[in-house]
Design goal:
By secondary structure, the protein is mostly helical. The chain is about 80% helix and about 0% strand. The chain has one domain. The structure holds protoporphyrin IX containing FE.
């Protein structure tokens, strides 16, 4: 009986602990990181346009603009978490770069993932957070102007940090498959 129970228990343990292969997890996270970029860029563009129109008309930001700004910060934080999990474990490129840092610095694709991308994106994340707080604390009359300025600052760094396909270390614009999710 005891033996039987143990067998059942270990059977379940195997079923529950069946590890997702690191490469599948890598593909999933990379896929999400790649697509979340578009949501972030679209929402940023929308909010910049709103802030420009509203501040031009001398009106304050609406409650829904305000909520969308908060949602943008949430999405960017999630993007940072996905990025950090790529950086500190999942990405074979980062692993290769960090295992021989000085040669990686001479290789554009490796230097990009190990240094340039994360530095640009950390700055973008900081600008967005500071901008959110400053915008919230600003008087209603100037709130839209603050939002406009900080959102444009965020967009500049985020756009500069993205591996656009025309760059030497370019990556796909749209990832349509999980390469090896089989
Ligand atoms: C501090 C935050 C971030 C970290 C630590 C980070 C980290 C990374 C890493 C390590 C890679 C390379 C993964 C690999 O190819 O193996 C990567 C790729 C990428 N990251 Fe980030 N990232 C961050 C923020 C962002 C943000 C804010 C965006 C865009 C809004 C972004 C867009 C991308 C894109 C488009 C790729 C290429 C994905 C692909 O090849 O399909 N990242 N990121």
């Amino acid at each position: 009986m005891l033996r039987e129970r143990r067998t059942v228990a270990s059977h379940h343990a195997v079923a529950y602990a069946a590890p997702m292969s690191p490469s599948v997890l890598y593909e999933l996270v990379l896929f999400s990181h790649s697509w979340l970029r578009w949501l972030i860029l679209a929402l940023t563009l929308f909010l910049i346009i709103r802030a420009v129109l509203v501040s031009g008309a001398g009106r304050p930001l609406s409650t829904s603009d305000d909520r969308l700004f908060t949602a943008l910060v949430g999405m960017v934080d999630l993007q940072m978490l996905l990025g950090l999990s790529l950086y500190f474990g999942l990405s074979p490129l980062v692993k290769a770069a960090l295992s021989d840092f000085s040669s990686a610095m001479r290789e554009p694709a490796l230097r990009f993932v190990a240094v340039e991308h994360v530095v640009a994106m950390f700055l973008a994340v900081v600008i967005l957070h500071v901008g959110r707080v400053r915008t919230r604390r600003a008087d209603e009359a100037v709130r839209a102007r603050h939002a406009r300025r900080w959102l444009i600052g965020f967009a500049v760094f985020a756009l500069a940090g993205i591996p656009w396909p025309f760059l030497p270390y370019g990556r796909p614009l749209l990832r349509l498959t999980f390469a090896d999710l089989g």
